[in-house]
Amino acid sequence: MKTSRSTEASIKHGRQPRRGVLSTVLRALSIVMAVVLVSGASVAAWVVWDLASNVSSNAIDISGPDDTPLPAVPNIDAFEGGFNLLVVGADNDPEQGDDFGEREITLNDVNMLLHVSEDHSSAVVVSFPRDLVIPHPTCVDPETGESNGPTRAQPLNAAFERGGLACVVGTIENLTGLEIEFAALMSFASVVRMTDAVGGVPVCLTAPVNDPLSDLDLPAGTSVVSGETALAFLRTRHGVGDGSDLSRIASQQQYISSLVRTIKSNDTLTDVTKLYSLAQVAAKHVNLSTSLTNVTRMVAMARTLVTVDLDKLNLIQYPVMDDPNNRNRVVPLQSLADQLFERIATDAPFAPDPNANRTGVEADPNAPATPPADAPDATPGATPVPTPTTDVIEGLQGQTAFDQTCSVANR
C-alpha cells in the first residue's frame, strides 16, 4: 500500500517528491527527538534512582518511637512549612584517614542547627561550641545496642561516642526544646568534596595565617578556597582569634556567610541541574538521616532558601559563658539562650547584637556599600540596620549572610 500511494502521488504532482523528502526528514527528526526525550527522562530517572540508592545505603536512623511519618513532597517546589536540620562534623570519622591524626574515639566537633521559618522568609544557623557542658539524654549505641544512661554534665562533643548521630540530635533537642527532623553527618573527606562541588568560596583574613596544626597557609586579604584548603580554614583554631573554639565558630560563620552569597549569586538554588549535582555529592559522601532519603525532599528543602534574603539569614553562636569549674569549657548563658530559642520556635524576627564582642572576626573594610532594601543607611562593612519589626537581642553574638567579615589572625 505504501508503495502504490507514493507512485500515485508522483504521477499527479511532478514536484511533490521534494516535499516528500522534507516530510521524511521531519518525521525522522521527530523520531530522533522522541528518542532523545525518552532517553533524557530515562537518564533523569536513573540519576534520581542512583541518588536515592546512595542516600539509602549511607542513611542513619535518627527517629524516635513516637515520631510521626513525614508528609510527602510531590515536587521540588512543594515543600510546606519550616524545618530543622542538624549538620554534624565528625573528627575521627572512619573515612577520615590518617592525614589528620588519630583519636581513640569519634567526636562531634562541629554542630550547626539550620532552622527555616514556616513561611520560608527567614532562616537561622546556630553553632554550638564543642566544649559546651550540658546534660545528655539516654542514648543507644548503634554498634552494640547498649544503652548509655543520661548524664548531668558532659561536653557536647561526647554525644556521638555515646550513641552516634541520633544521640547528637537528641542532645541538641533536649538543650533547645526544638524537634529536629533531619540531620547530616560530614567527615573531613566529605567537606573537601562538597566545597569542590560548590567551586570555591571567598574568605578574608586580616593578616597571613600559617597554622601547621590545621595545615592552613593563606595570605592576608581575600582568597578563594576549596577542597582541602577550605577544610583547613574551617578547622583552624590556633590560627585565628584567641585560639579558642569560639574564634573558630566565628570564622566558620564568615565562611557560611560567603558560601550563601556565592550560591545565591550563581543561581545554584534556582538551577535544578546544579542542585542535583550537589545532591549527588551529598548522597555519596555525606551520611544523611533516613528522613532525607527522598531526593525530591532534599532538593525541595534547599530551594526553600531561595526566598530568604541575605539579611534575613542569621548566623548565631549559641550563648555561653565560662564554666566556673573548668576554664577550658563553657556552659549555657541560659537567659540569653531562652530568648533566642523562644524566637526561633515562634519564627519571631530577631537580629544579633551589632555591638556584641565577637572573638575572631571583624567587619571587612572592603565590603560593598550596597545595603539590603530595609537598611538604607548601612555603611561599608557595617551590620545592616534592622527594620523596626526586628528585635535585636542584646548580647547575642553572630552576623547575617549579608554581613562580610574577616577572620582576625592569631598573633
Automatic annotation (TrEMBL):
One Pfam family recorded for the sequence = LytR_cpsA_psr
> Where is composition skewed (Low complexity) in this entry?
375-391
Q: Which region ranges are annotated with the description Disordered? A: 348-392
Cell envelope-related transcriptional attenuator domain: residues covered: 108-264
In terms of InterPro entries, this protein maps to:
LytR/CpsA/Psr_CW_biosynth, LytR_CpsA_psr
Residues of the signal peptide: none
Keyword Oxidoreductase annotated: no
Identify the keywords attached in UniProt to this record, alphabetized: Membrane, Transmembrane, Transmembrane helix
Organism's domain of life?
Bacteria
Task: Enumerate the transmembrane spans.
Answer: 21-49
Q: Which family does it belong to?
A: Belongs to the LytR/CpsA/Psr (LCP) family.
Q: By what name is this protein known?
A: LytR family transcriptional regulator
